[in-house]
Prior knowledge:
Blueprint (H helix, E strand, L loop, with lengths): L4 H14 L4 E5 L2 E6 L2 E9 L2 E7 L2 H9 L4 E4 L8 E6 L5 H16 L1
Antiparallel strand pairs: 1-2, 2-3, 3-4, 4-6, 5-6
Amino acid sequence: MTETMEELLARIRLLMMKELGLQELRIPSGWNYKQSGKIVAFVGKKRALLQVSTKLSKDQAEQVLQRVDVEAHPNARLASAGWVTLYVFEEAQLPLMLDWVRKSIKLICD
Length: 110
């Protein structure tokens, strides 16, 4: 049985808190995730798409945006600061998403 977007969103939220130990903060457009008081990721739902935005280094962002196996775009409001948005369609993309969030944590909090 295929997960619904709502089920996938619930799993992403759980992974962010349990696996990565992030603090969750509900905002009108989704959720902010913080570590050490700093925002390291945004998760939201727009139409039928789940969006996960993270801050990446310039090199990491360029590599991600050139990939053909995922849908990713510079974040509409924070692209100049290195934020990239991944659109999550299926469970198979969760390891990639978690990797991006880990890189964001390292970049922002270290």
